[in-house]
Specification:
about 325 residues; alpha/beta; UDP-N-acetylmuramoyl-L-alanine:D-glutamate ligase; 8-stranded mixed sheet; 4-stranded mixed sheet
C-alpha cells in the first residue's frame, strides 16, 4: 500500500451486540462463548486496528453488557464520544456455524439499545470526520433506521458516505422494507460494498454488474461485490476489476465481510482517495491493489474464531511473505 498521507477520521454508525457461540452441552444447560460484535461495531474495531482514527455512533445499553462493549471500544482505541447511552437491553446474537465455517444468526434484540437511536440523538459531526460508514440491520430497524438515514442524507456531499446493506432477514423478514430503505439510502452513498447473497436477496436475478451500473448511475463512485470463496469484484469509473480470495484454513467466516470493509476504507485513506472524487480517480491497477488488501484482511479473519479482525502489523507480515 502507499504511504499514509494524513489520518482521516471515520465515524462508523450502526449496531453493537454480543455474538454467542455454542461450545458444549452441560448437565443443566448449554455453554456459550460471548464475543463483542455487530457488523458496524466490527468495522470500527477493524479500522482502529489498522491504525485509523475512528469513532463509533450507536445506542449502547446501560446494562453490564453495554459497559463491556464500551470497554472493548476504549481498549481498541475507538472514540466513544458519539455513543448514546440507553436504558434498553443489549442485543444478543446466537451464532451457528456450517461445515464450511459460514455463520447463521438468530438475533434477540427487540427494542434493544442499538435499535433505539432517534433523530433527536443525532450529533453534530466534527470537521475532522472524513467518512461515515453505515451498515446492517440498524438501517432497517426503526427508530435507528430513520436516524441513520437522516444522518446520511444530511452529510452526503460533505464527506464520503459508505454503505454495506449486510442483509439480516431474521431481524427484519420483510424484504420490501429492506428494498425501500436501501432505495432511499444508497443514492447518498459514494461507496457501496455488498455481497452476492445480499444482491440476490434484495433484487433476485440481478447480476452484480447490473447492480453496480444502477447505483453508479445514481451517484456511487465505487461498488464492490464480495463473492466469498469466489473473491471480489470492484466496479470503478475505469471498468471492473476482479480479485480471487486468499486461500486459508477457515475456522469460521464471522466478521470476514466487516474485515474486508474496514480494510477497504483504510486502503482508500492510505491512497488519498477517501472522497467522491478520489473514488472516481482510481485506475484499474490501483483498484486491484485495494481489493487484494481487503481480501487479505478478510482471509486473516477467517483463519481464527469469531470477528477477530487483523492489525496493521499482521497485514504487513502477510505482504512481506
Amino acid at each position: 500500500m502507499a504511504m499514509i498521507r494524513e489520518k482521516a477520521r471515520f465515524l462508523v454508525c450502526g449496531e453493537a451486540l454480543f455474538d454467542l457461540f455454542f461450545e458444549a452441552d452441560e448437565e443443566m444447560g448449554m455453554r456459550f462463548s460471548a464475543r463483542v460484535g455487530g457488523s458496524p461495531f466490527n468495522v470500527a474495531l477493524g479500522l482502529a486496528r489498522l491504525g485509523r482514527e475512528v469513532g463509533f455512533f450507536s445506542g449502547i445499553s446501560n446494562d453490564f453488557l453495554g459497559a463491556r462493549l464500551v470497554r472493548s471500544l476504549e481498549t481498541e482505541g475507538v472514540s466513544t464520544e458519539y455513543l448514546i447511552r440507553k436504558d434498553a437491553a443489549t442485543t444478543l446474537s446466537l451464532v451457528g456455524l456450517g461445515a464450511d465455517g459460514s455463520p447463521s444468526y438468530a438475533f434477540y434484540g427487540h427494542d434493544s439499545a442499538d435499535r433505539s437511536v432517534e433523530i433527536a440523538d443525532l450529533p453534530e459531526i466534527g470537521e475532522n470526520i472524513g467518512a461515515l460508514h453505515f451498515g446492517s440491520y440498524s438501517l432497517v430497524a426503526a427508530p435507528s433506521a430513520d436516524a441513520f438515514a437522516a444522518l446520511a442524507q444530511k452529510e452526503a456531499g460533505k464527506r464520503l458516505i459508505s454503505v454495506d446493506p449486510n442483509v439480516r432477514l431474521n431481524v427484519e423478514p420483510d424484504i420490501g422494507i429492506w428494498r425501500s430503505r436501501m432505495d432511499f439510502l444508497l443514492p447518498f452513498a459514494d461507496l457501496v460494498k455488498i455481497s452476492e447473497e445480499d444482491i440476490e436477496a434484495l433484487f433476485p436475478g440481478v447480476q452484480a454488474d447490473n447492480f453496480a451500473r444502477q447505483w453508479m448511475d445514481r451517484g456511487a463512485g465505487l461498488v464492490v461485490v464480495t463473492k466469498g470463496v469466489g473473491g471480489a469484484v470492484g466496479f470503478g469509473r475505469h471498468g471492473p476489476v476482479e480479485v480471487p480470495s486468499i486461500p486459508v484454513d477457515v475456522v469460521d467466516a464471522v466478521g470476514a465481510g466487516d474485515s474486508f470493509q474496514a480494510a477497504l476504507l483504510c486502503g482508500l485513506d492510505e491512497m488519498g482517495a477517501l472522497s467522491s472524487q478520489g473514488l472516481r480517480s482510481l485506475n484499474r491497477e490501483t483498484l486491484g491493489t485495494l481489493l487484494n488488501f481487503a481480501a487479505e484482511a478478510a482471509s486473516l479473519t477467517c483463519s481464527r474464531r469469531g470477528a477477530d479482525l487483523p492489525t496493521q502489523s499482521e497485514l504487513r507480515e502477510v505482504a512481506e511473505q
